[in-house]
Specification:
Residues 10-56 form the F-box domain. The protein contains nine helices and five strands. By secondary structure, it is an alpha/beta fold. The chain has two domains: 1-49, Up-down Bundle (Monooxygenase), CATH 1.20.1280; 53-205, Alpha-Beta Horseshoe (Leucine-rich repeat, LRR (right-handed beta-alpha superhelix)), CATH 3.80.10.10.
């Protein structure tokens, strides 16, 4: 059935059916989704649909306080929908402030409470005593919150840790928990993981064998 040009022009876009509207939103970048959600209530409702937020990349470019605050706000709202999550710290030599470190702790706590992931990618996450991090910062609670989050996951199929410089104790503890609680695990990527620790490398090789 064909419609005339005039009939198409008379379509009320705010009344588009919900399911097709959500499918349209899936093809949009996050910024475009946000802009579109401001059009009307119906489009905002589509923007809030959980299926749109099953896959998400959190990228921190250097402003730890602002970036982590926005990330916490997002996770509070959409953590229950997340299935595929990537967290990347693009500027690994940045010196974060304590507020940013505290926000990261909140981020991992909300993830622990609200989501069960299928895929998890973490990139450039430094141990508090490595890199150029300010040694006066209290980062131990954030590392503990991260460990608790990873340990809470039961449905992981794919994990990728790239340049995750945890201490030997923390790293091996996490690997043990992953192995014991994720029977469906299909892929575990470890690049520059526990770098510089010979015993840890032996353990990782044993873990992967």
């Amino acid at each position: 059935m064909f419609h005339s040009v005039s009939s198409i022009e008379n379509i009320h876009w705010e009344n588009l059916p919900f399911v097709p509207l959500v499918l349209i939103f899936k093809f949009l970048e996050n910024r475009d989704r946000l802009n579109a959600s401001l059009a009307c209530q119906n489009w905002y409702n589509a923007f809030e649909c959980g299926i749109l937020w099953e896959r998400f990349n959190l990228v921190f470019h250097g402003d730890m306080i602002d970036d982590t605050r926005k990330a916490v706000k997002f996770v509070k709202k959409h953590a229950a929908s997340l299935k595929h999550l990537s967290i990347q710290f693009r500027r690994i030599n940045m010196i974060p402030l304590q507020d940013g470190i505290n926000n990261l702790k909140q981020l991992f706590e909300h993830l622990e409470d609200s989501c069960q992931l299928h895929d998890f990618h973490l990139e450039n996450f430094f141990h508090p005593q490595q890199g150029n991090l300010n040694r006066t910062l209290n980062t131990r609670p954030t590392v503990d919150a991260f460990k608790a989050f990873v340990k809470s996951q039961r449905n992981l199929k794919r994990i990728n840790f790239f340049n995750v410089r945890l201490s030997e104790k923390d790293g091996l503890d996490i690997l043990t928990e992953i192995a014991s609680k994720n029977e469906s695990l299909q892929s575990l990527g470890l690049t520059h993981f526990l770098e510089g620790t010979a015993d840890a490398h032996k353990y990782v090789r044993k873990f992967l064998s």
